[in-house]
Design goal:
0% strand; 4 helices; mainly alpha; 2 domains
């Protein structure tokens, strides 16, 4: 079993922005703030999945293109392994 977990949480936008602001301005913040600050927005994940529909030049307008489970799992498995926000 992994020593970490990945969560999807929903918080109000204004609180998310406040947490990011506090994290950027303070030397001492709770670990929860750090996790939220370095988290990946679900909208960013959705955008990565949406990019998969742009891979087939023969059907650029066809949004019903097949996206494999493997493609989506690769995106989900790589959350948090790229650039920090």
């Amino acid at each position: 079993m992994s020593e970490t977990v990945k969560l999807i949480i929903e918080i109000p936008d204004y609180e998310y922005k406040q947490i990011k602001e506090v994290f950027e301005k303070s030397d001492v913040v709770s670990s929860a703030y750090s996790y939220i600050y370095h988290g990946t927005l679900l909208d960013d994940v959705k955008a990565e999945i949406e990019k998969l529909t742009d891979l087939n030049p023969d059907y650029p307008m066809d949004k019903t293109i097949h996206i494999s489970k493997w493609n989506v799992m690769q995106i989900l498995n790589n959350i948090g392994k790229g650039d920090s926000k």
